[in-house]
Amino acid sequence: MNIEKAWDLLKKEGFKKTDKREQILDIFSKTSKYITARDILDVMMEEHPGMSYDTIYRNLNTFVELGILEETELAGEKNFRMQCEVDHHHHHFICLKCGNIKEINFCPMEVLQNSIPGYEIENHKFEIYGNCPECH
Fold first, then answer.
1. Are 69 and 103 in contact (CB under 8 A)?
2. Residue 87 has what DSSP assignment?
3. Whose CA is closest to 97, among 71, 40, 39, 136?
4. Where in the chain are the domains?
5. CB within 10 Å: which end of the chain, N or C, has fewer?
6. Tens of pLDDT, residues 18-47
7. What are phi and psi of 85, to 5 degrees?
8. Coil, strand or helix: which one is 52?
9. What is the CATH architecture assignment of 3-82?
10. pLDDT tens digits, residue range 1-14?
11. Closest to 94 measured CA to CA, from 112, 71, 110, 111
């Protein structure tokens, strides 16, 4: 997702444009990797020395709820990245060393659905973790 789409969603939901929200979105727009709230805080402390985790997490959670950010858990910590801008269903391989992401254009749910007849799946999340060729 690009920043313009993100602001359109935020404005539509009644959120004001603030310097802090703008900086958070700018940080995400410059990377395709998953990053933590700590990563965001470290960058923002330079301009906003009194910045708190609560402010960061509140904004990150809002961005996730609105579909601006994706979230996953790596090593017991929530990580976030900008929502993909593709119009097809896909999943990701996430490198545990460098954080690079590789798109996977296959969905295992097509196979798994047959193994649980009668169950209605409303949503799913599938991620693969490991090391990319550069980190292997």
1. no
2. S
3. 136
4. 3-82, 91-130
5. C
6. 999 999 999 999 998 999 999 999 999 998
7. -105, 35
8. coil
9. Orthogonal Bundle (1.10)
10. 889 999 999 999 99
11. 71
Residue showing tokens 């609560």 = 54
The token pair that represents 26 in the structure block: 């700018």
- Helices 37-44 and 53-65: angle between axes, nearest 10 degrees: 120
Q: What pLDDT score does 98 carry?
A: 85
Write the pLDDT tens digit of every residue in 67-107. Answer: 999 999 888 899 999 988 777 788 889 988 888 889 888 88
| Domain topology for 91-130 | Dna Ligase; domain 1 (3.30.1490)
**Hey, what are 101's tokens?**
């992401």
In the numeric block, which tokens belong to residue 43? 């960058």
Sign of CA dihedral 128, 69, 65, 87: negative
Rounded to an integer, the average pLDDT of 53-77 is 93
pTM over 0.70: yes
Residue 32: per-residue pLDDT: 87
What is the crossing angle of helices 3-12 and 19-29, to 10°?
140
